[in-house]
Amino acid sequence: MRxxxxxxPAGRAAAVCxxxxxxxxxxxxxxxxxxxxxxxxxxxxxxxxxxxxSPRLFGNCIRVDNRRxxxxxxxxxxxxxxxxxYRHMFMFLGYLKRMANLRHVSFAVPHWYTDTHRRKxxxxxxxxxxxxxxxxxxxxxxxxxxxxxxxxxxAFVILDFGYxxxxxxxxxxxxxxxxxxxxxxxxxxxxxxxxxxxxxxxxRNKLEDNTYWxxxxxxxxxxxxxxxxxxxxxxxxxxxxxxxxxxxxEYDRMISEDLARIKVFVDEQLCSGGGEKxxxxxxxxxxNNYAVKAILPKNVGRSLNPSESTALGCSLVSLIKRSKVTFxxxxxxxxxxxxxxxxxxxxxxxxxxxxxxxxxxxYKKKEDFAIEVFENETxxxxxxxxxKAEEPVPVTIAFSINRRGxxxxxxxxRDADGGAxxxxxxSHGEISVNMMSFSHEELxxxxxxEDEFRVKEIETERIKAKRxxxxxxxxxxxxxxxxxxxxxxxYKDLINVTADELLCYRSSKxxxxxxxxxxxxxxxxxxxxxxxxxxxxxIRSEIDEMKKRARAVTTKYSKLYTPGLYQLRGELFMIEKWxxxxxxxxxxxxxxxxxxxxxxxxxxxxxxxxxDAEAAEKQREEEVAEREKAAQAERARHAEQEAKCAAxxxxxxxxxxxxxxxxxxNVS
Length: 668
Known about the structure:
Nucleotidyltransferase, domain 5, ATP-dependent protein folding chaperone, alpha+beta, five-stranded antiparallel sheet, 668 residues, Substrate Binding Domain Of DNAk, Chain A, domain 1
């Protein structure tokens, strides 16, 4: 399954190219917007989004430690002939949904995809809440990618040497209109080469021919073929007793028949496209094979990325409405006939541009009838029309092809004069379209199958995460214990032995088994755990003593309101919250900071001193205020006494002057 998710503006559709490919590993470099990092033992990988989106990593990443853990997830579903193929396709779409958060998608599909294949693809995507914007033929999408690069000839041919097929697309480009003229393909590709190689190695190494060994060998094929491109022979060790060895001469004999079929096909397509003068562009992973290069003309172009051009072109389909280029894909051949009729089906569409205009078909019927729909002479469904009339009445059905390349049928009512009124509900007929796709029961079965695997997959992911986390913890445990100075000296050898044994320990099959292993290795570190527990108790004792001192101060100054006291109460609250989550053991030591307790002590001690100082200052201020108040009262008392004395003196003076006035009157 070849995939590229194009980088588009927010809200636009992603592009997914659905083509048969196989498993492998890909390392994306930083300039490709992603890297894959591997640990020194090459047992686990930290993958970025770009790497996760590589379909060659879809599955369980076949490794020595997990080859037999759960059934391998399939990456290939070449012809979609069986229910299992569709289940695997649904798995892959679900994988993309989780990894890339797909919402709106344009699909590029092989030329042989029928209307039924497309409908089933839409059903699977809908079940995953993926909106299918469009479905375009893969080689047609590649042509759009080529046009966007500029300098395109008026007529050109694209040869796509894929994994399960070889495709030739003939195109024209005039007045900024890109049109698909015709497409041809044969079911021969890199898969046929690889299957012969794998069978050869299984026979030579006397291996059991099963899925397990085919998956193991498949992961080495790409590297092996790359070496064969430049050397006469290759020798590659897979396991202790398995060696992949082959010469270029043996490989040439092995693929000679398939290569001859590809050569005949290519020659026919180039001859019909204009011979030596035709402009040819080559894409597809199999085009990198030295044997395929040898059968190609010398003037072929290789300006496109062989693996990503299809999906990139597919992403441009969703933006084509805003582009100056007009793109026209073509449909298959559709024909119809009345069900039960012995006449030859009538042509409805023949290589029609997609999306197409409506084609109206009128029948005069007074009873229910059905129309059978054929694609390339294969029955793909039927349209049923209900009619209730005493006499034959005209019933018009409008057929069209939507942007997904799917045939649609709706009602087009005709009036009494026979003029079409357009697509709307008829007054005397009801239309139901029953095209071949999944039933509700089949969709439920596909979903249940995926859910069963997903449960296993989630458990496997949890097992890996738990093991990796514990390994990382042990590798850094000695360094973390140094936080406490000389208190944990002498445990380095115990930690190293435990870590080495865990790194070489078998992988677990269930989460409960992994938890048991986790507990077993923790028990080996019991001396460290006991010391940490004692240290935790001592730290808690110090914290309790600190809290008692702080609470005593807050109780003592319960009626006092100062900034320091407010901060002290807040600090007590923070200490209690920290204490609720505080736990000192092998697993939590990595996040423990010894300075936190000292920081609490310093802050609390500082706040206690500040509160005492603020209380003393408050007391001094109160004493000064009391003295000032007493002085003011004393001054008021003195002022009152002086006023009283003055009043008494005045009264005495008035009384002394009254007898003298009486004596003067008597003299008169």
